[in-house]
Amino acid sequence: MRRNLGEPTDSVRTRAVACCPHAVGTIKRGWRVAATQRRGPVVPPTLADVAELAGVSRQTVSNALNNPALLRTDTLERVQEAVAELGYQPNRAARNLRTRASHLVGMRFAPAQEGTANALMERFVHSLVEECRAAGYHVLLFAADHDDITSGYDELVRSTAVDAFVVTDTYLGNPQAAWLEQNRVPFVAFGRPWDDPDAGHPWADVDGAAGVAMATRHVIGRGHTRVAWVGWRKDSRIGEDRRSGWSATMRERGLPTTGLAARVEDTIASGKEAAAMLLDEAHPSAFVCASDTLAMGVLHTLHDRGLVPGRDVAVVGFDDSQAAQVVPGGLTSVRQPLEEVAVEVVAALQGMLARPRLVHPPRLLTPSLVVRGSAP
Amino acid sequence: MRRNLGEPTDSVRTRAVACCPHAVGTIKRGWRVAATQRRGPVVPPTLADVAELAGVSRQTVSNALNNPALLRTDTLERVQEAVAELGYQPNRAARNLRTRASHLVGMRFAPAQEGTANALMERFVHSLVEECRAAGYHVLLFAADHDDITSGYDELVRSTAVDAFVVTDTYLGNPQAAWLEQNRVPFVAFGRPWDDPDAGHPWADVDGAAGVAMATRHVIGRGHTRVAWVGWRKDSRIGEDRRSGWSATMRERGLPTTGLAARVEDTIASGKEAAAMLLDEAHPSAFVCASDTLAMGVLHTLHDRGLVPGRDVAVVGFDDSQAAQVVPGGLTSVRQPLEEVAVEVVAALQGMLARPRLVHPPRLLTPSLVVRGSAP
DNA sequence: ATGAAAGCGCTAACAT
DNA sequence: ATGTTAGCGCTTTCAT
Fold first, then answer.
1. How high is the pLDDT of residue A365?
2. Strand partners, A363
3. Matching CATH topology for A10-90 and A208-336?
4. Which UniProt keywords apply (chains A, B) (predicted)?
5. Measuring CA to CA, how many Å separate A294 from each of A231, A262, A304, B125, B321?
């Protein structure tokens, strides 16, 4: 393996001479630089090198890689030996040019906000990378202007740099999802198309309402009857969805919700204030929150008032962030099955890129509850 | 802009007919599929389309993009108009094939460990993506087998998928750094080559010892004299480096260190145990820790014993994780300048990939101290 | 089952 | 300053 990678092989030279006189010059210059540096830059073997070593034509080698069934067993073996001997890997650029596919999936990478506990992306991206690998894809990260988010997508599409996109921030009213759809750019969304139920693109999402319902049932099961909700502002579709998990469960159990809900910004300070207000005015014994950030804010208020989470007041967050995992006492939290989301997303991606196109049905995945000290 | 992107343009058709009869078939088939789907797949314009529209040769268009100084002003303008009119972007695959460069930087993406507070990567990767964009690069993420980490690198190198790598986990005894160097694969490391000071590759790193020294001086300045160290096991070079910041500062101020240090695994449980042991046996009034994970472990012990961080005992962590930011009371922590690291890494990358190669000197960056309630 | 020829879209070299 | 020619390494007809 890779035996000849650092040294000029005869086949490389022969190939150059054989197919065109001009190339000799090119390669000679390459090797001259090489000589200066004592050891040359790596000149990877090409299909032609493999073909020569195996004593077959270039096309046969190509077939051996892309359509092995076409070859006779002994020929196939000879080719495979030559491939192994030279450590041959097809040149991506050439293959991409020819097949008009990059085997790259683009994803805009926005950073987690400072001062919050919402670092989901690291987990999701890792799962995505793993799944993509299994499917023969790689993940290309890119950034975009704040004032013109679509420009980043546009550039990559037009330069045929990626085959498709994964869009993660559909909850922001996704201007890019609409743009991508309009421009017929293949993409899969992590997140429902809230504004457009008939959206044509594949998606996978986590059932936030179910997660919050689970959390609410958990605290009710521990004897709490006055369960408060600390969630996001009304314009957040995800926030309203999660909230519905709380309100539906409370109604179902015949428990009161009046005065027990707050809708605030997703910051520690807001969660803290909301908890203080609710404790004073509605006397809840449990808090279910739309995010770990808000839940940590609630913990701040309990901390300030000398109340012990899990003993005096139950608190449940959402996202199972690192903060939830490491905070003293531990924060019970709803955990999104991001690994499963990645599996669904990549499956949809594969279907979308396959010929003929295979439509992957939308999937709504169920989160789980990780029980820790704040709501044992 | 992008006016003709969704519709067949005359120039596209002409181009196809003009340059080869074979292509007609290909494009016709393309359009037949298009008809079935009501609206066709996007056929991006090529250099030839721009050339025809501008009334110049393909080479002139190429020059307009890559060497505009060569053109006469009016020609350049005409070409640029045509580029804008068609929404032209050079095809990456073709350009990559020709120039033997992908303008892609590979980075292995390992997930943060669950149950720790060490989610640095999200911040670093984002900065890296931003910096790369400014330099005309994109970041390609990949995963690798656990048992054979170099295989992932090898595959990308051999298929010429990336121009260089960014290596972030040099502290693990970096088997891949050695491999990359040996195979003359361009790469830049975030992290010093601890085992080989003469390593030829560029790198940038954060001065952990300076950060810990800063933290130690901070608590000493607040009147603490018995300052304990909770760090990693002795085989961690980074851990020993950070520890030296503590021990040197203590010695410098004539303060005792004996019995005041623990070397444990990087887990909450270990930090918690170490703190309990140290409190019992050495009675420190302050803890400086090698990581936020260990610091959170220390907070656990204080929590259990009814001690108030920042009032009874000072605690400082390392990394300024989200947990440090949101934990009630707040955790004072040393913050790595990851944005600056990314700037350095990309600068080194550019130098390394430039012709002639420009060697970027190694840079050791100084972290800062973020003061919060645990050590005010 | 294997080989020959063509060309994907671009840029480097040379010619004008 | 602009055009002409060739070819990067691969796959896709088509012919054998």
1. 97
2. A204
3. no
4. DNA-binding, Transcription, Transcription regulation
5. 8, 11, 15, 26, 17
pLDDT digits (tens, 9 = 90+) for B153-212: 988 988 899 999 999 876 656 678 888 888 889 999 999 988 887 888 999 999 999 999
The CATH number of the structural domain formed by A208-336 is 3.40.50.2300
CA B20 → C1' D13, Å?
Answer: 13
Q: Do A158 and B110 touch (CB under 8 A)?
A: no
Instruction: Choose from A61-70, A91-100, B13-22 the range with maximum mean pLDDT.
Output: A91-100
From B322, B277, B139, B90, select the one nearest A116 (Cα to Cα).
B322
Instruction: Indicate the CATH number for domain B104-204+338-364.
Output: 3.40.50.2300
What is the band of B19 on the pLDDT scale with cuts at 50, 70, 90?
A: very low
Token pair for residue A225?
A: 């009857």
Q: How do residues A260-310 score in pLDDT, each as one tens digit? A: 999 999 999 999 999 999 999 999 999 999 999 999 999 999 999 999 999
Residue whose entry in the numeric block shows the structure tokens 């058709």: B13
| Closest to A167 in 3D by CA, of A151, A191, A198 | A191
d(CA B289, CA A326): 15
Closest CA to A132 of A105, A163, A169: A105
Helix (H, G, I), strand (E, B) or coil at A149: helix
Torsion B268-B274-B277-B282 (CA) sign? negative
Ranges of each domain in chain B: 10-90, 104-204+338-364, 208-336
User: Is the pLDDT reported for residue B273 higher than 60?
Assistant: yes
List the A227-232 sheet strands across, edge first.
A261-264, A227-232, A286-289, A314-318, A332-335, A368-370
Residues of A in contact with B145 (CB under 8 A): none
Closest CA to B363 of B120, B190, B158, B119: B190
* B 126-145 residues, CB < 7 A, strand D: none
Categorise residue B252: left if φ over 0, alpha if ψ from -120 to 50, beta otherwise: alpha
- Cis peptide leading into A202, omega within 30 of 0? no
Q: Domain spanning A10-90: which superfamily?
A: lambda repressor-like DNA-binding domains (1.10.260.40)
